[in-house]
Q: What sequence folds into this?
């Protein structure tokens, strides 16, 4: 569907043309002085020079023509040559009716969907999720949903850290604690036990313990490296034990991502490309892309236009070991071969900005991705505490994601329990739904690259720019609609009022901006645009709600017009929420 502003621009453009000027001067924007008018056009100012005429004279001529146009209820020329415009109720109601009749509210679906892949989450096996994992999961999930909402394909891959020294550390420590395990018996030929010899809590204790130990105990570090080597070279018992570590850890990860309403299509990891690496390295050497530098194998990635130093991308260390880069490049090769994506998006902390620049350049230079594959890194900022420093527990430790979610659930539960006639079970359920919006909106409403302060009190507030406020708004609409239906109201075939009151019209105006906003959110991969829109929409709705008697309206046609507007507002708000990865409860 055509954009509303484009339609208005067309009308004003025609008027310019009729008055003898170029139609391109008719570009209309939302007014930056809403107290004076709804829309504006500054084309007369732009055209003054070319036509050697005072801008206000041009504006006056255009206004005379626009006065006859039923799309506008007001057209005014104001010095030095602005065009101040209001649209007619009929024109806007027609447009919004058309949006309401469309399954996607007037969004243009692509003729040929693009194939995206998104690499997000990126947790490491055997380590619990902590607050640092929140943003990758929440922003990645939202970007994926925006892409899909806009009619494209998107495959989400978690890209587990399941292969490096961290695995060797866990194995080495298990060997110290339980040397009798069959996994360590080289002569064992039977089937390995189905049950893992540890729980997820064991693993969570073992990893930091082993990691700390390796920093003080050189012999242990040696042993951990040997275990990593044995694992990576396919020693049977080590592989079997590693499988168990992954199994236990992944089950726990799934549980935690589930709580965040985050879902991956692929649970691939760094280990999956292990066998691809030797072939890739050979290829890079053979084609002359990679060369030895101080014993290490590297690919140069600097470019003439660089303003800062971009170091070469290291493919193999001097001891022949592969690196984080190597797995990422090999993963790109596999993704290209298996899925042939048009665009791959990565989400990590912005401290990996330079790293991804190197990897992307190396991938292009070595042609392991197609020339026209777009590679994007979304580097996000830090989650800070109220003191402006990275978020920590009260005693200064790393905050586990699980506990963070629990805390916010508890705060929400307290709020919901007080002053509502809800039993404990329902209150718990509702609290979880609302708390999820609090966490996600608190994160997503910030531009990804910026740091933000995780403020539980603010995020869980029912007022202001928060998730709970938005949910509350949708719940309010749902309850009005339910009442309307209970009173025998009809919900089909309704049309908007062509003579809307002021706040009703302002809400319609907000609605007309939906398709432009969604396109921007997709092009810029920017969930915060959806957040800002949703917040404005909720505010526009609430003003309308406070100024209008909806269900007690006596004029039936008018009332139906209100209901039509409510239904569309709710549907669009829910569409936005779907893109953000949370939803509203039935009541709260
Ligand atoms: N596991 C990595 C980390 O903890 C993040 C992985 C991000 N994805 C990637 N393809 N490099 O930093």
A:
């Amino acid at each position: 569907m055509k954009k509303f502003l484009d339609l208005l621009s067309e009308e004003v453009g025609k008027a310019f043309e009729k008055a003898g000027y170029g139609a391109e001067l008719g570009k209309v924007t939302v007014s930056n002085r809403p107290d004076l008018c709804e829309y504006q056009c500054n084309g007369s100012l732009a055209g003054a020079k070319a036509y050697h005429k005072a801008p206000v004279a041009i504006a006056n001529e255009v206004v005379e023509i626009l006065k006859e146009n039923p799309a506008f209820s007001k057209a005014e020329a104001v010095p030095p040559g602005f065009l101040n415009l209001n649209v007619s109720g009929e024109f806007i109601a027609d447009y919004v009716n058309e949006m309401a009749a469309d399954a996607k509210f007037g969004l243009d679906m692509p003729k040929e969907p693009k194939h995206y892949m998104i690499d997000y989450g990126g947790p490491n096996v055997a380590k619990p999720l902590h607050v640092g994992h929140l943003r990758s999961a929440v922003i990645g999930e939202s970007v994926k949903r925006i892409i899909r909402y806009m009619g494209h394909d998107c495959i989400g891959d978690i890209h587990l850290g399941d292969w490096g020294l961290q695995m060797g550390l866990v194995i080495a420590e298990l060997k110290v604690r339980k040397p009798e395990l069959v996994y360590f018996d080289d002569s064992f030929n039977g089937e390995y036990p189905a049950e893992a010899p540890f729980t997820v809590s064991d693993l969570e204790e073992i990893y930091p313990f082993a990691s700390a130990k390796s920093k003080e105990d050189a012999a242990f570090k040696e042993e951990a490296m040997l275990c990593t080597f044995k694992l990576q070279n396919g020693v049977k018992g080590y592989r079997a034990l590693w499988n168990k570590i992954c199994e236990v850890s992944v089950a726990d990860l799934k549980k935690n991502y589930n709580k965040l309403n985050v879902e991956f299509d692929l649970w691939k990891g760094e280990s999956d490309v292990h066998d691809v690496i030797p072939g890739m390295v050979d290829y890079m050497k053979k084609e002359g892309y990679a060369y030895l530098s101080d014993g290490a194998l590297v690919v140069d990635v600097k470019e003439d236009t660089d303003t800062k130093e971009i170091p070469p991308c290291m493919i193999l260390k001097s001891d022949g070991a592969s690196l984080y880069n190597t797995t990422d490049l090999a993963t790109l090769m596999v993704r290209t071969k298996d899925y042939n994506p048009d665009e791959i998006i990565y989400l990590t902390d912005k401290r990996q900005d330079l790293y991804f620049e190197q990897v992307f350049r190396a991938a292009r230079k070595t042609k392991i991705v197609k020339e026209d594959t777009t590679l994007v890194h979304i580097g996000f900022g830090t989650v800070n505490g109220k003191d402006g420093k990275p978020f920590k527990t009260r005693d200064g430790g790393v905050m586990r994601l699980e506990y963070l979610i629990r805390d916010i659930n508890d705060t929400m539960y307290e709020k919901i329990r007080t002053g509502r006639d809800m039993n404990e079970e329902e209150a718990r359920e509702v609290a979880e739904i609302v708390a999820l919006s609090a966490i996600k909106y608190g994160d997503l409403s910030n531009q990804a690259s910026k740091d933000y302060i995780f403020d539980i009190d603010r995020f869980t507030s029912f007022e202001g720019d928060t998730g709970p406020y938005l949910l509350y708004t949708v719940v309010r609409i749902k309850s009005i609609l339910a009442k309307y239906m209970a009173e025998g109201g009809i919900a089909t075939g309704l049309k908007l009022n062509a003579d809307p009151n002021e706040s009703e019209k302002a809400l319609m105006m907000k609605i007309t901006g939906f398709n432009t906003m969604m396109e921007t959110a997709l092009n810029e991969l920017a969930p915060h645009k959806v957040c800002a829109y949703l917040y404005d929409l909720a505010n526009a709705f609430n003003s309308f709600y406070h100024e209008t008697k909806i269900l007690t309206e006596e004029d039936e046609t008018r009332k139906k017009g209100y209901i039509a507007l409510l239904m569309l507002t709710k549907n669009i708000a829910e569409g936005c929420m779907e893109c953000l990865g949370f939803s509203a409860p039935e009541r709260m």
